[in-house]
Amino acid sequence: MRRNGDSEVTVRLEVRRSRSTSANVAEHVGIHPRLLARIGAEPRQQTRVSHQGTTALFTLIPEADAHGIDAVQVTDGGCRRIGAEPGHAVVLDLRCVDPTISEAEAEVEGEFVERLDDDGHHHRLVVLAPHGGAIESRTDRQAEQVYASLGSRDSTLWTCKGWRPAGNAYRAWHISSGDVSVRSFPLLRSLGARRFQWAVSFHGYRGHDVVIGGRAPARLKSDVLNAVAKALDGTGVRVRVADPGERYSGSSASNLVNRLTVDGAGGIQIEQSRPARTLYGEAIAAAVTGVCESWIAADAGR
């Protein structure tokens, strides 16, 4: 193990034969608990892993049977994310986002940035887009549209945006919403002690529908379903509530959209096919805005 700077360390890469059935296992790094402590990280915190100029975000997973404190383990899929092979040296960097550059610069340089608009006080609604930029395209614009309509008195906006010059920003910067650590995102950390009544998170996926999930009550998901379905009437895009336990249901208590709400029970996750968010993203966001406005108005009238 070689330390390169305050937050960087060079280690050897090994292939991890994971027993996990998680769809996001290629985003995980197996690391010995002693190495985790030595670099000053916590379990399930994110890190950049870089090899010869190619970088991707990973989640640190403690593994006591890791082979030593001079190596980390990733799956074959994880190796492909950074173009590395077993035995190669890789650099870990706990600084996951670059706070110093503009979004225009990040797009040109293939970087990853975090953004927050928040008055620091209210507890009503937080709007999220953890995979903006070119990761899950247009989802950040939808979140920004909702926030712009509702204003800072009633809503907070948190987004992350990533690009990659050669394409496939998803492969470089995507981290499952259930794994996102407040330790790795300074602006998100500022929200960590607050709990909002509602949270809405915009996402993209490879399916064909718009899927409404999260741990919010069924009546709230029904409100969103009906509004979005009305906005998309005649387009051929199907809108449905997620089935319990399906991959994109957003029902895990660890999902960020649920974690940020009171009792973990106010989160709405909106998964959208590429055609839905590309062709009808503004209409979907406007429909969601209308629903949120009605929730806020009803709450104010109590």
What's a concise summary of this model?
This protein is α/β, with parallel strands linked by helices and 302 residues long. It contains nine helices and 14 strands.
Which geometry do the CA atoms define? globular
Beta fraction: 25-35%
Number of strands: 14
Largest sheet: 7 strands, mixed
How far apart are the termini? 59 Å
- Estimated radius of gyration: 20 Å
Order of helices and strands: EEEHEEEHEHEEHEHHEEHEHEH
Helix content: 25-40%
Which spans have pLDDT < 50 for at least 5 consecutive residues?
none
Question: What is the tally of helical segments?
Answer: 9
The residue-averaged pLDDT reads 93
Describe the structure.
The structure is a single chain. The chain is of the alpha/beta class and 302 residues long. It contains nine helices and 14 strands. The model has no long low-confidence stretch (mean pLDDT 93).
What brief labels describe this structure?
alpha/beta; seven-stranded mixed sheet; 14 strands; globular
Helix and strand arrangement:
Elements: E1 2-3, E2 8-15, E3 28-31, H1 33-38, E4 46-51, E5 54-62, E6 71-74, H2 76-82, E7 89-93, H3 103-109, E8 112-117, E9 125-133, H4 139-150, E10 155-162, H5 169-173, H6 186-189, E11 198-204, E12 210-213, H7 218-231, E13 239-241, H8 256-259, E14 267-272, H9 274-300
Parallel strand pairs: 2-6, 3-5, 9-10, 9-11, 11-14, 12-13
Antiparallel strand pairs: 1-2, 2-7, 4-5, 4-7, 8-10, 12-14
Helix pairs in contact: 4-9, 7-9
